[in-house]
Amino acid sequence: MKTPVLKIEQFKQAEPLTDFYINTIANHINENKNLISKSHKHNFYLCVLFTKGEGIHEIDFSSYPIKPGKVFFLRPGQTHAWKFTSPPEGYIFFHSKEFYELKFLEHKLKSFPFYYSFQNPPVLTLSKKSVDFLQKKYEEIYHEFQHNEAFRALKIVNLINGIYIDLLREYTATINLEKFISVNYLTILENLEQLINTYFLKEKLPRFYADKLSITTKHLNRVVKETISKTTSELIADRILLEAKRMMVHSDESLTNIASLLEFSDYAYFSKIFKAKTGLTPSNFRKKYG
Predict the structure, then answer these.
(1) Kind plus residue range of the DSSP H or E element containing 22
(2) Residue 32 scores a pLDDT above 70
(3) Among 47-56, 77-86, 204-213, where is mean pLDDT lowest?
(4) Rounded to whole angstroms, how far apart are CA atoms 218 and 213?
(5) How does residue 14 score in pLDDT terms, banded at 50, 70 and 90?
(6) Is it the case that residue 51 has pLDDT exceeding 90?
């Protein structure tokens, strides 16, 4: 069974605005429960603010607690699912890459650390003061979305940009900002992740990706180390592990076949590596998430 990939147009939205959607969490869940009741992917960027409620948000098989003040970020292609233990409140919006970047030709989504790499945490915890401040901005976007007034799209994009900048400052409050300054490094990292997504099944060595990017392996490792504190080899291994998890949960392939499809020498070696990385055997992982 393949993981469904949801598209923006599947969700109710006002016309003629396209490539953007916003709703309260409560309305979103109620109106789209048939779409989002199971684990799924998106083809857009998503940002959600919780002001009430509790539960678990699973993103690429990592679990994060849902509590008031939590903000989650998802990039296209990530698998996620909600599990609520008390009714949630807050706001959720999502948009295409083009909706944002066509208005900001000199500023890209990859400039934001919560979007430029799958390796960065997809969650942020805000203080009550910050929640109250940002909630007003989400409410303003929600109001604009519901009323088809002049320059609606432009105002919404500017409001989104303001929210992203405020969230960036919170996100990087305890991190050395110098590593976020080099646009060149961010471009290399983004291109590397795209290449890994394309070739990881066949190409496991950093040199292949360095050659594709027309840089040395040493420089590629420097870029990855300075942006996400990992090596290129670790980044490739992480992608292989994520694919293993997705196949275990969203396909009917046997574990032996999955190991073979991922080009491990044998199942025993695959199982050893998987347990070392996750703390679970492949069979126990499948039972937990299946």
Answers:
(1) strand 20-24
(2) yes
(3) 77-86
(4) 12
(5) very low
(6) yes
DSSP classification of residue 40: B
**Annotation: CATH topology of 5-174:** Jelly Rolls (2.60.120)
Q: Which fold has domain 182-289?
A: Arc Repressor Mutant, subunit A (1.10.10)
Q: Which residues make Cβ contacts (< 8 Å) with residue 150, sequence separation at least 6? A: none
Do the Cβ atoms of 125 and 70 come closer than 8 Å? Answer: yes
Q: Which amino acid is at 225?
A: K
Instruction: Collect all residues with Cβ–Cβ distance below 8 Å to 49 and sequence separation of at least 6.
Output: 70, 71, 90, 91, 92, 126, 131, 134, 135, 138
Domain residue spans of the chain: 5-174, 182-289
- Which positions ≥6 away from 167 have C-beta within 8 Å? 47, 71, 112, 114, 124, 134
Q: Which residues contact 191 (CB under 8 A, 6 or more apart)?
A: 213
| Full-model pTM | 0.76
Query: Taking phi first (over 0 means left), then psi (-120 to 50 degrees means alpha), and beta for anything else, what does residue 42 get?
Result: beta
The gap between the terminal CA atoms of the chain, to the nearest Å, is: 11
Annotate 215-245 with b (16+ C-beta within 10 A) or e (fewer).
Answer: eebeebbebbeebbebebebbbbbbbbbbbb
Matching fold, domains 5-174 and 182-289: no
- Among 98-107, 146-155, 213-222, the least confident range: 98-107
pLDDT, position 101: 87
pLDDT digits (tens, 9 = 90+) for 196-228: 999 999 999 999 999 999 999 999 999 999 888
